[in-house]
Amino acid sequence: MLKKLNKNSVIIMTGIILITLGIVVGTYEYFLEKKNETFSKMNLKLFENEMPETIDSEEEYQNKISDDDIEPEEPVQDPTPDNTQGETQNNTQNYSNYLGVLEIPKINIKRGFYSVDSKYNNVDYNVTVIQNSTLPDEKNNNLILAAHSGDCSICYFHNLYKIANGDEAYIYYKGIKYIYKVTNIYEVEKTGRVAIYRDFNKNVLTLITCTRNSNTKQTVYILELVGEERY
User: If pLDDT is split at 50, 70 and 90, which confidence band does 19 have?
Assistant: First the structure.
């Protein structure tokens, strides 16, 4: 009788475990499906504007865009402190033309960007803010920046392939230096759409450019906010 009870207990416990596992798996698949739906919605909105091509040389750039198409870049002052000038740094410069500045120390890039509706917000002139970006002072934001890769004068993300997980990038915006660290790097096929895989509860900087030595892929760099400083 005791053996029969023990056997029944084992069967009952096994049933409970299987039911629990079923609930866990079902719940996981449900939230995964919702997560994927969110990415799909981002895809539809994000790439209404065309992503940058790789430009391999200055000659190719000049052939791609005629003189009639090119507008002169707006003269601006860099809104970030320049420590290389030491005591001669002039802090009274007019910084109002840029929306903000991207700096990546590892690859020695510091480049201003304009508001999404500016005529200068174009990959053929500058690092570009993608249409559906949200700005660093918004909750759970995602600032998405794109630029050409290659060897031409406007290929500002030429060396982006050199950064790795843990490297830092800074955004200077409205008197705040936002400090980000790379947390994920992945490649996607060039289809006119890119899924942004990121934590929606965090503030994020996303950088996108064509993959080095590839005509068919783009690389996405996800960076998460780790700190803020006034400048």
Answer: confident
Q: What is 49-79+95-230's CATH topology?
A: Sortase; Chain: A; (2.40.260)
User: What is the per-residue burial (b if ≥16 Cβ within 10 Å, else e) of 134-153?
Assistant: ebbeeeebbbbbbbbbbebe
Query: pTM of the prediction?
Result: 0.67
Return the DSSP state at 199.
-
3-state secondary structure of 206: strand
CA distance 22 to 215: 44
Distance CA 220, CA 168 (A): 15
Task: Output the 3-class SS for 78-135.
Answer: CCCCCHHHHHHCCCCCCCCCCCEEEEEHHHCEEEEECCCCCCCCCCCCCCEECCCCCC
Q: By the 8 A CB rule, do 194 and 209 touch? A: no
- Write the CB contacts of 118 (distance below 8 Å, at least 6 apart in sequence): 99
Q: Grade residue 87 by pLDDT with cuts at 50, 70 and 90.
A: very low
CA 46 to chain centre: 12
